[in-house]
Design a protein that fits this description.
Largest sheet: 6 strands, antiparallel
Helix content: 40-55%
Order of helices and strands: HEEHHEHEHEEEEEHHH
Shape: globular
Number of helices: 8
Length: 331
Amino acid sequence: MQVKTSAHHCLRISLLPTFIFTTLLPLVLLTACVGPMHEQVLFERAGTRIGLQTDLSTQRSSPPTTNAHPRQISPQDMRILLGSIEVSGWSGILLGLFQERHPFPVFTVDELDIIAGPIGQAFEQAVATERVFFSVPGKEKPYPSEKERIEGALFFRNQYLHVVLTNHYAFSSADPGGGEERDPRDTKGMKLWVASPAMAAIVPIEQEPVWTAFEKVHISLNPTDVLIARESKPVTTPISKTVASTTPTTAPSQPKMAETDQRKTTESTSDQLHLQVNELTNANLDLRSRLKEQSAEIQTLREELEQLRKQIKPRSPTKPSTKSSPSSSTP
């Protein structure tokens, strides 16, 4: 009995090894290089999830590094740090090209009430190779949704708190069509900011985490500086009741009014300077990020050019011409 095999079936069989080596093998090797990924949920309530996950950036660094975990931080301090982070973005590329950025807090007051404590407790349980992740749904319809949420992670390393944001329900993701899920590389034009008077930290290049293509939206804070800036309040001295009762009520003198106006002007100028420094710091961080991406692209192009040079075969040496040069004719 002869078994007939169609040419189409033979072609599919012959292409199977090529598919395995070109598609599946690189994924297996990549997984082996960065190690296993695990995730543990420590807090879950009304769709909000907080827990620990493997921080692969510790393994991508050369040499490998570790995070400053476990870390003890009070819910009040954690609330101040999280409340100082702002985000801007847009829904759709065309709209973003003509839309001015208006940063607003990443988390609402109600969301901070829920997540500040659990995130602080998660840092107490985290080890040096883990980071804390958060996933918060919106409260307005059609939320809660598994697609449009506030998602990201944060970790302490050296003296900095690094925060990465991968999604925010305030900005609608682009529709890939065909009923497909949201592309995780779609960052919706998001950018993180630090609310004045606090400022983002400028991390030295050698201490900057190695971010992936899915972690383009990130920012770094110096917790000590942010807590000092956000908690600083003008010192007010209460007026004694005895002095107030014995001192007659008179209109403030002209020198005191001038002093008050001068103090207000100084405070206003200081706030403007803080805002300008904050904007310059964010612009510097953005420029450094773009420069780093361009350096990586240049290195990739150099490697591809070197491969092309190796693939081009050297040309065979040209043979000397056998034709003799015409001799000069004599008259």
